[in-house]
Design goal:
668 residues, two-stranded antiparallel ribbon, 2% helix, elongated
Amino acid sequence: MKEPLPTANATELSECTCPSANYTGGQCWPGTYCPLGTGYPEPCTEGMYCREWGLSQPNGDCNAGYYCDGGIDRPDPPHRLCPTGAYCEEGFSTFMPCPAGTFSNTTGNINVTYCLSCTPGQYCAGTGNIAPTADCDPGYYCPGGQDTATPLEYNCTVGHFCAGGNPAPDPCISGEYQDEEGASECKPCPREYYCDATEAALSFSVSSHGVVIPTECPAGSYCPVMTEGALQYLCPEGYYSNVTRLENVGQCQPCPGGTYCDSKGLTVFADVCDAGFVCVSASNTSIPTDGVTGYECLPGYYCPKGSDQGVKCPEGTFSERYGLENVTECESCTPGQYCQTQGLTSPTGNCTAGHYCTLRAIDPNPSGETYGDICPAGYYCPEMTEDPVACPIGSFNPLTQRPALTDCQPCTEGKYCDKLGQTNFTAECDPGFYCINGSSSATPTDGMTGDECPAGAYCETGSSIYQPCDDGTYMNHTQAEACDTCPARYYCVNKVRADPCPLGSYCPSGRGYDYEMCPIGTYGPVMMLATADECTQCDGGKYCDHTGADAVTGNCAPGYYCEIGVDTAYPNNNNTGLGGPCPEGTYCPGANPEPLGCEAGTYNDLTTQALCKPCEPRFYCPANSTTYLTTPCWKGKIAPSLPCQLNHVSHYTVLERLLLSREYNPCY
């Protein structure tokens, strides 16, 4: 059988063209089959595969999880793996999209059960989904397997809301209600009413249900908007209410003078006050001492003999004791706090953050006062500061009036701060080290605020993080400011070392993953080559048909010779190096570095021959003959040196005798 020469580089027989003029038949190749009487291979049937050479029918069905669309040579073709959003049963010629209401985010699905029901709260519109389309629309809820955002049979129910993406309706929480279907949110419970979800669930005899109709606020309570229960907001001690539907605490009535209300939620006052105490209004005890609803001689006051009311302690002082007699008994305001008004029973409050307050402070945020000032830069002053606090080492603060430790900024990345109370960083981090933030040293080694530059990386001055060595560079020690260029004959991808250039390759300097492959027609049998010229030319009689080879591919084909550097077993003027078809008058049995001349007695009138032909009868063939026709047997000879035997004659015809020259007349 003769096989056609490819018109371009081909990788398998099926890519070769075969005109009818020179195609005589052969074995069907993988991916085809040849029934009896086939004139040309048939592509393998859709849904099936043809693995071997010379099949008369397909091997069988394509595997589940794959599809075979014709001409396939294996049951599990990697390039026909069933895609996401689809499934492929055994023998499928194409993939089948997952049905509406389902999705699949995996490949290789073998049947429709691998298509997942759409996630509850979402919907999967159309077919072939690889993920849910989107969340269910507000006002609707979506159990698993929905194919629309607005399923009519799943309208949100009363007492519930569906904000979107709901697998089931959500009950309105206490303080809200919903009296309509298809709602995306609940309504706030109106003022003068309360909405108790627990009561609602009990009324519907279920474990969970939202309020449908709000309930009136009872006497003794008040109900602002979104009240959750009947007893959530009780009229406070000292107050009462005997009417329903109050909406705020201001509508609760204070207990009248001379009376008291000692518990919450009262609908009438409790009783009248005891003798010896003053109940002014809204008293919650029969013996008030709070200085508002009643008093003896109140804290914050001093009462000279015969006073009918107390005299207030002055600004900058306070008193927490009863029965003071004169102003000298009022206490100076505590450092870190301030006493802003007269008659205080305790300091007004803490000195404002960002300021500091010494003894007898009057204002919470003093500025240039004898009793305090604003916090200076490099320090911070929390609330209630007596003396400014210095920012710690490893931080700085450029601003005044800062209130918290967090205002001390961690030392800037790539910088360090080595003193207390700094208003700026000290300087940049040293080369060979990196400062993450908050570093207190130019050469940190704690691993938290910074560290030395590790092997395989470099750190320039002011580095905030180490930089891994670039491809084609390396660094084999710590504290490096720059990485070294990879030397020739090595490649650098491991950051910390240079590795010898591998077999079949060559490595100029500065190479990493981009090291070069020995070109076709050559091979690299040793490591650590630096240039393409150091790759070995393919040996005589051999060929090297791919880049990066570390050994020859194989022997030159019979009928061809490969002198040196050849990249194909069939050199034919389209190859590298020196080689070609074996010429006429020679033969190449295989693995030939050069053609062999035909021996005497043989000839070759064709190219690309592995053997020479024996010389025809009545002719002789010198060495390297390309034909026998020009060398007939000499006159009187049957060979160049043998006379005709006695009584033997030549068997040439008359026409042959006429055609032969006189010099070469045969014997007769």
